Amino acid sequence: MRVYTTGVFDILHRGHLNILTQAAALGELTVGIMSDQGVEDTKGARPILSLEERDAQIRSLPFVAEVIHYTDVDQRANYAALRPDIVVQGDDWLFSADRTPALNFLRDNGIRLVLLPRTQGISTTEIRKRVERSRRRDEQFLRERLRMVPMAELKRYEAFDEAKVDKLIAKIHADGTFFNPISVVREMIVIDGANRLEALRRLDARHVPCVVYDYSEIDLLGNVHFINNGVTTRLSEFSREVGERIEFPRRSPQDIRAAAESGKMIPNGETFHRVPQSVIRFPIPMSALTSPTAFDLAGYLERRIASGQIRFYQSGVYVCDEWQDAG
Predict the structure, then answer these.
(1) Could you point out which of 149, 207, 235, 296 has its C-alpha 20 to 30 Å from the C-alpha of 34?
(2) From CA 237, how far away is CA 206, in angstroms rounded?
(3) What pLDDT is stored for residue 235 in this prediction?
(4) Do residues 99 and 57 both lie within one domain?
């Protein structure tokens, strides 16, 4: 039996080996490795190891019969050339891109698809984050990434939820304070906070507190929702996985940029940008955000650091005590 599987295989780990060994147990295994350019196109950054290095890793495994390279996520040409009897992928493969053409090809050509469970708790992205956390410089991160951005410079790719915006407006208006900074990438695309941004816009904010990230350090996922007793909860580090699970397709950074530029919004809640560090509960008076003069965020941050009002969590979440006076 001819078996074919694909992947990036950057920083080879036990999750990769679990898939590869199980695939090899089914027959003669050919492994497709995505090129450096293909990785950059789909993930927004080049892999840590070059194609040549990743190729050498996979070829060194005694149960791998052949290795090929590819750039396009559409594997139909490789299926046609290799004529495998079985294609093996991790069970998240179905949601990492539009697989309809591939699935139709496999069905039409009698090729069996085997989806193996993803090994929990390990991935190349997770390993990269562990390395980053091992050399974290918390105050430096806040000083470099926390900024006041003019409202006019921010771009949305995601539609907002009218009901949530109304609730946010009521809360912000009652408190007179805006708490959680909005997450953006360097192109000033809002990747988390579409509802908060719309609430601030309607409250006439001129400047918005933002945490700025590089797309290369973000894990862009198809979001997962849980519906329990009529209540919808998004999957996050703070949520519980209870109820009916609904998974949305995974999109690429190019999809996000295209939506932001075209104005064709992606429905609210369908994507999940997992960032390496988060900043939460950082209170700023609304009067400072509506003022024509930008709020002195740098000075405010330094005062909070000096007075010990910021707690740094090993998980990569920064908690800023909201009960202190923002003046």
Answers:
(1) 235
(2) 31
(3) 63
(4) yes
In this structure, the answer to whether residues 215 and 311 fall within a common structural domain is yes
Strand partners, 284: 178
Under 8 Å CB-to-CB from 184, ≥6 apart: which residues?
A: 149, 154, 190, 191, 210, 211, 212, 213
Q: Give per-residue pLDDT as tens, 17-27.
A: 999 999 999 99
Percentage of residues in the chain with pLDDT exceeding 90?
Answer: 60
Q: In what order do the strands lie in the sheet with 244-247?
A: 231-234, 224-228, 244-247
Main-chain phi, psi angles of 61, to 5 degrees: -80, 125
- Helix (H) / strand (E) element for 169: namely helix 162-175
pLDDT of 250 = 83
The parent domain of residue 167 ranges over 136-320
What values do phi and psi take at 129, rounded to 5? -70, -35
* pLDDT tops 80 at residue 198: yes
As a whole number, the mean pLDDT across the chain is 88
Q: Which amino acid belongs to residue 126?
A: E
Give the closest residue to 119 by CA, choosing from 218, 31, 19. 19
- CATH number of the domain where residue 105 is located: 3.40.50.620
pLDDT at 322: 47
User: How far is Cα 143 from Cα 105, in angstroms, rounded to an integer?
Assistant: 51
The pLDDT of residue 136: 58
Residue 323 vs residue 117, higher pLDDT: 117
Q: DSSP H helical segments within 25-159, as ranges?
A: 36-43, 51-59, 76-82, 100-108, 124-134, 138-145
What are the backbone dihedrals phi and psi of residue 128, each rounded to the nearest 5 degrees, phi first? -60, -40
CA neighbor of 124 nearest in space, from 293, 279, 10, 242: 10
Backbone φ, ψ for residue 62 (5° rounding)? -65, -20
pTM of structure: 0.56
In a domain, 325, yes or no: no
Q: To 10 degrees, what angle do helices 162-175 and 194-202 make? A: 60
pLDDT at 133: 61
* 327 in a structural domain: no
Strand partners, 245: 226
